Amino acid sequence: KVLGYAVSSKPASDGIKGYNGETPVMIAFDAKKKITGVYLLANMETPRFVQQVQQAGFFSQWNGLSVKKALKKKVDTVSGATFTSSAVIKSVHAVLETL
Residue 16: which region, alpha, beta or left (left: phi > 0; alpha: psi -120 to 50)? Predict the structure, then answer.
């Protein structure tokens, strides 16, 4: 029985950079192909900025959405971590556009 799916933004997100480098993500889906989580993979971002993004609930903004709805969703960057959050948005879009 399929419980869900997970996709990595690499290589679709290659070249998308935050403050200190690439910001690859993993997106988890349930069996109905709704997003259950967005997770930042190994990166060179400043931990303080990543923590700001996490504490703002940024990654959960896509939860419960289909690929189509997630691509249309307007997600705002996190003040004080603009480069990091902007790069994550671009990485999420890069991989969702391939699905």
Answer: beta
Spatial separation of the C-alpha atoms in residues 27 and 99, rounded to whole Å: 12
> Three-state SS across the chain?
CCCEEEEECCCCCCCCECCCCECCEEEEEECCCCEEEEEECCCCCCHHHHHHHHHCCHHHHHCCCCHHHHHHCCCCCCCCCHHHHHHHHHHHHHHHCCC
Residue ranges for the chain with pLDDT beneath 50 = none
Q: Which pLDDT does position 96 carry in this prediction?
A: 98
Model's pTM, two decimal places?
A: 0.94
